[in-house]
């Protein structure tokens, strides 16, 4: 092994992990679109190699002491030079492994879920595009590279939400997601430009290193807040959160992959990526903390009243992302990133389980699923309960450990308000999660249960196994990942040399657990016990119910804004300009041409003798010109 | 040479102009062809006169060519006209405007 030193294999593995999905995307789209099985195989092969490379990288660099950089010059203009390449450090390795693993599992699951869909090849092409963009985003070496793949991830999200584009609501939802995240991305891009102007380059390590400390505090705060705007858009935080529930119009595996486990977590990932930079500005951290808290609480309240199973998970995704941002905003890097990792596992599991129900019963409504006998699907039901327990933070499951870390970080803050909000969020989360579980598990009255479920089991027999195997893998991860807390924390903090923030709040786990138990009991009392009315306490308070189920009227406010300001003023002015000025000019040009043509056509008599006259007259004039 | 060269040129010019008028003004394909022939003859007169004036034989040789070509042209032209008459039943140039 003379040529292949350790550095070469690392670079090779990084290249394989990041670039193969693009090859699959291009080949499927250009060549094999008409052969769905081959396309799916291609995409799966690419993501498998990607996953193996990611695993190889993670194992090889476990305990990495200092970040590795591979880069080449990409853009040089004046004294600004932008490099492109890979940045390999614990955070990016962990995220790469998470992304590749979830992509892989979801693609396998999709073999069953999307079977027979006319757009099967297209689906796998887009999945590969997403895998390419997301893996490159995680290993991005400069902020600009990260931004480019950030946008590509947004593009693939748009394409996959609107995958069933014949459905009007789906194409609308795709558009909404694209436009709303774009609002945040504009802020992000401005932040990137601001940093480029003041720092001179966009290298993430420079940004996190001592160079950023020499910037003036105002610039750091402005840059951090602008970049946080991008995070708000991508991770569906407070003002821009309504796109995520609508994004559930896409196929369920897409929701599992993009809109819960990986893509929306890219915002949190960016926050973690630039965590040292953000920590230079206490103001920015405070804003992040506040935005995370507000989003977490608002989204939890929305989830308490929704009947659509996927929407509940969408709201809980928003609230869990808010929790991660709270953890990071509270200054605990490990807590946020660890919760990101565990959340990716159990939230993907939740969505994939729900996908099996939706696939079998052709309904998103949890009550309908319960009535049709959702509990008969044993494997998804058991996995759903495991994942729900993890989401609620019940001890042996992974969510418990990461939530405790975040709550501990919040308890470290001087103001007790934050930890109170965190505990309230944990209470609400447990409540709405088990509300859903109990509604499916203990349906109020047995409907036409037996014959329907027999029927569906029979029909989806082959796909069922394909879909169930990723579920079991993810459930295993959910059960055991929590015990890796110490190892992951040491791995993450190795380069910075800091100790994992061990917070000692002996009362905290008890408080959190008793709140969980209270919420569990409340949910059981209202939905689970025999003869329960299955009406939540929120639904009894009419104005509160209206407020929550209308998403706090945020959509309506946006609609107002759109109708009155955007459509009413800007669009109308633009339409005027278009009709009067641009159309007028173009029409005028056309009419003038037509009129000139009409004039000229008088000369065009179509008669031999007129032409002869012209010939003779011109000869005479030429004779006069030359000889006289 | 008894007749001055200027007179010959004037005669040839008059014949050419007459041919022009005939070609342009008559509404009959045969008469247009005839007009063109007359113009060729006018040109031939100018060549003959010039050959006399400078005592060179090339002018007369040219005229022989012109007459030969004119004969060929008339035969071709008349054949075309007969064919057109068969197709359309009209010799009026105003009727031939399919390409308009």
Provide a compact summary of the structure.
The complex is a heterodimer of chains A (628) and B (100). With 628 residues, chain A is mainly α. Helices cover 76% and strands 3% of the residues of chain A.
Approximate strand percentage of chain A: under 5%
Strand order of the largest sheet of chain A: 1-2
Order of helices and strands of chain A: HHEEHHHHHHHHHHHHHHHHHHHHHHHHHH
Tell me about the largest β-sheet of chain A: 2 strands, antiparallel
* Radius of gyration of chain B, whole Å: 17 Å
Radius of gyration of chain A: 29 Å
Instruction: Please count the beta strands of chain A (DSSP E, at least 2 residues each).
Output: 2
End-to-end gap of chain A: 96 Å
- Unreliably modeled segments of chain A: 1-5, 448-459
Structural class determined from secondary elements of chain B: mainly alpha
> Which structural class should the secondary elements of chain A be placed in?
mainly alpha
**The number of domains of chain A:** 3
Question: What is the third-level CATH name, the topology of chain B?
Answer: Helix Hairpins
Number of domains of chain B: 1
Helix content of chain A: over 70%
- Ranges of chain B where pLDDT stays below 50 over 5 or more residues in a row are none
What global shape of chain B is seen?
elongated
Task: Give an overview in words.
The complex is a heterodimer of chains A (about 625) and B (about 100). Chain A is mainly α and about 625 residues long. Chain A has three domains: about 1-280, no CATH class; about 290-495 and about 520-540, no CATH class; about 555-625, no CATH class. In chain A, about 75% of the residues lie in helices and about 5% in strands. In chain A, helix 6 (about 170-200) runs antiparallel to helix 9 and helix 15 (about 310-330) packs antiparallel against helix 20. Chain B has a single domain (about 5-95), classed as Orthogonal Bundle (Helix Hairpins). Chain B has helices at about 5-25, 30-55, 60-90. The mean pLDDT of chain B is about 90. Chains A and B meet through helix 28 of A and helix 1 of B.
